[in-house]
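re the bet — no i am not wrong, look at it urself. input seq straight from the record:
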Amino acid sequence: MKHRSLLTVLTIVPLSAALVGCGGKDNAVADVKTAGGYNNEPVKLSIYDYQAGINDRELQTYIIKPIQAKYPNISFELLSAKSPEELAASGVVPDLVATSNVYVKYMLDLGFGEDLQSMVKTSGLNLSRIEPEALNELKKFGPKGEIYGLPLSMNYGVMLYNKEIFDKLGVAYPKDEMTWSQTLELAKKVTRTEGGIRYIGVSMGAPQGLVRQYSLPVVDDKQQKSIVTSDGFKTIFSALRQLYDMNGYLGPAKEFNYGFNEFSKDQTLAMNPNWIAAVTDTLAQLDKDGKTFQWDIVSFPAFDDRPKLGRQIDFHLFMVPPASKNKNAAYEVARSLLTDEAQTAMNKAGRMTVLKVSELKKQYAQDLKVYNGKNLAGIFKVTPAPAPMSTNYDTKIYSILQESNKEMAQNNMDVNTALRMADEKANKHIQEMKQQGK
């Protein structure tokens, strides 16, 4: 991509909605000079999004609208780049980087993270209002108390289920706080062909999601070698092996990957564990188009030896690059989006609040009406599992694990052989990376 095309500048229209705090020092943003150091001077802030899902619509709805209501002199532009490396190489420095906790280390390695500790202290921002799981995850990246970003929104694991399939097959619905073993047993009852239609009980996704839910790193960081043959990986691959052994699970062409499309469009997948942020808009659109069906949700399944721990912690946050020329204004934007009013509006519009307010969570996506009458409260009956610390080896090793998973599904490979194969490939990759100085 040429440097000229790196920036996509959005037209900014001043908005009149007021952003008024609900009381308390951390909600008040009126005294900008003493809060974040921003003096209300005209400034255009550039935002780079990497895996946080902030597109033009979200930028307008969740950021521009609340911020310009209070700070009309702040405008924004959304940067586009094929990769963070491309952005770093271009010489263009964003003022804010929106990303997921999964990629914080990646961004730090590229120089996109400033320690915001002093700004947090000076502004009096009360971090204890934020979900403790999100704060604990953020603290992993700052061993000396560094704060490399401010959370914006949360994501939760959820298990969708098609009530019509369960009713047709005469099987009881799934329940909250189920384990993966219980889920697999239930799936066996609805994995069958009925009336010429092949129904699949459940999808477990690629190993990556399960590995992260189990809080497993893929590398021993001290010894710099793969650990994918350890007990936790055997637990995960044994569960996947059970799935593929179900009569009727594999398709006629050995298909084994099923997901939200089979759940929402084909309506042949009975249970679909997913991210709530990934499905909300589509479910709302189905309802709007009159194509909806009878479905509901329960909490994300937990591993038997890790009860009530759902899908791994996942939240989106803003980081401020050290080389930004507008750090005070950038910090003030991130801080202002944590006020009760900004979080409430965002939460009701479809991006879940990161504040630890149970009543607010119950109002999630209220404006979309997609969860009216649904078991939304059920997804909060499990706690997000701690995520493993990311390494530079993860992406490739996750793909290697998926290769072994495919061998299990399509070629009936046993668990131990599949993991040994992954281990050999992973260690080869680690050595190649080390030789390249990465």
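see?? Residues 1-34 have pLDDT under 50 and may be disordered. told u. also DSSP finds 17 helices and 16 strands in the chain. so pay up
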